[in-house]
Design goal:
about 15% strand, about 30% helix, TIM Barrel, globular, ten-stranded mixed sheet, alpha/beta
Length: about 400
């Protein structure tokens, strides 16, 4: 997980801009300074650019993503937070003994962007501990410009909460590995005039014609906290049953409230209601996982690796294969393409997949055949986020914009 390796693998993925992560950590910041400066808060290794980012935890255990404009501002913020943190020199994601309001004030003073990380997850998240943005950020709420959705939520979930309509949604994910199977599982595409902090800020704040034009992320039902479930045995519960059991499973384990149920508690508008500025959301998983599912081989197998490498040799990057390349060109590829792989990519683009939802810390299971897997005892309400009545967001995605905009994962 060093910066040169991240840069090399991001290029294969097709990501132009990565968040550095951990930029307040002195050792990591030293490594960042070794990158080539490209001006206005951007640093370069090879063909990959980096912007300074850090995730911090507040007194209430809520996590916040901060995107910083320069090394000097990162150093200033480090000195400020050091007075309130015991682990800022040892942990890349430091705990700051300040409220969210105070952290946001210091971020503003550093001319940084700030918003909640993985806002809906039942641990260390905004809506795990607060019922509204204002309850969390107080008088600083108007300074918040984005919400990071997290793996268990998408646009159809978050836009059921009216207070979020004014904000841009970021689909970022922690890398956990520098390789494309984990790096940029979720990413954002922005319309920018140049790759620099000021343009990125303008796009997130939707100023000067800059804006997000596509969110890409895993299907929310695959997220490991999508439904309410036991964190020990992973048995799923309805919200009513979980409350009746006082959030204790029959096995004695804790039932953790799922993102879907939490959204239903907070929702004040129906699914399908989106502000005009909201871009399409495309549900995807990494290419190697799609190939693995399509040809029924393990994701680390030689067969999967060979197909993955052939596709990148033919089409350049993973994002190009998954998002941009027309299906008919994939079908015509002279790379010994297994037609099942193209069918699988097309199924994801059109949301024609079946998912057994995750919960309790266990990821959901995706199958390509919608008849696979047994339906749960309850019916999925089409009015609920992610319900069967939801239109495919890919249906409204105009692929003609793909050639002129940048892919960005501003976390890492």
């Amino acid at each position: 997980m060093d910066l040169p390796t991240l840069a090399e693998e991001a290029a294969k993925k097709g990501i132009q801009l990565l968040g550095t992560g951990d930029c307040l950590h002195p050792g990591w910041l030293k490594r960042i300074k070794e990158l080539a400066p490209a001006g206005d808060g951007i640093f370069v290794h090879g063909t990959t650019s980096f912007v300074l980012t850090v995730e911090v935890e507040d007194l209430r255990r809520v996590h916040h993503l901060i995107i910083l404009p320069s090394i000097s501002k990162a150093e200033e913020l480090y000195e400020t937070f050091k007075r309130y943190s015991q682990d800022i020199d040892s942990d890349g994601r430091p705990t700051i003994r300040l409220t969210a309001v105070e952290i946001a004030e210091h971020a503003r003073d550093a001319e940084a962007l700030i918003g909640p990380c993985h806002a809906f997850t039942p641990w260390t998240a905004l809506y795990a501990y607060h019922d509204s943005l204002r309850e969390c950020y107080g008088d600083m709420v108007d300074y918040i410009s984005f919400v990071e959705l997290g793996l268990s939520a998408d646009t159809s979930y978050a836009d059921r909460i009216t207070e979020l309509h004014r904000l841009s949604f970021l689909t970022n994910s922690d890398a956990h590995s520098p390789y494309p199977i984990r790096l940029a599982r979720e990413f954002n595409r922005f319309e920018l005039a140049d790759l620099c902090f000021d343009e990125l800020k303008a796009a997130i704040e939707r100023r000067r014609g800059r804006k997000p034009v596509l969110n890409v992320g895993v299907p929310p039902a695959e997220g490991k906290y999508n439904e309410s479930a036991c964190i020990r045995c992973y048995r799923h519960y309805s919200l009513t049953d979980a409350a009746a059991r006082h959030w204790r499973c029959a096995c004695g384990g804790m039932i953790k409230k799922g993102v879907r149920d939490r959204v239903n508690e907070l929702a004040d508008c129906n699914t399908g209601v989106h502000p005009q500025h909201r871009p399409p959301y495309l549900h995807l998983i990494p290419l190697a996982e799609i190939i693995s599912m399509a040809i029924h081989k393990s994701v680390g197998s030689k067969a999967v690796k060979t197909l993955w490498e052939s596709l990148l040799a033919e089409f350049g990057t993973e994002v190009n294969v998954l998002v941009d390349c027309p299906i008919h060109e994939l079908k015509a590829a002279e790379v010994g393409m297994d037609p099942r792989v193209v069918d699988a990519i097309e199924a994801f683009r059109e949301d024609k997949i079946h998912i057994e939802p995750g919960g309790g810390g266990k990821y959901g299971v995706i199958s390509l055949n919608s008849t696979c897997g047994e339906d749960r005892d309850r019916e999925v309400d089409a009015s609920e986020p992610g319900g069967r009545g939801q239109l495919s967001l890919y249906d409204i995605f105009d692929a003609r914009v793909n050639g002129s905009i940048n892919n960005n994962d501003v976390k890492h």
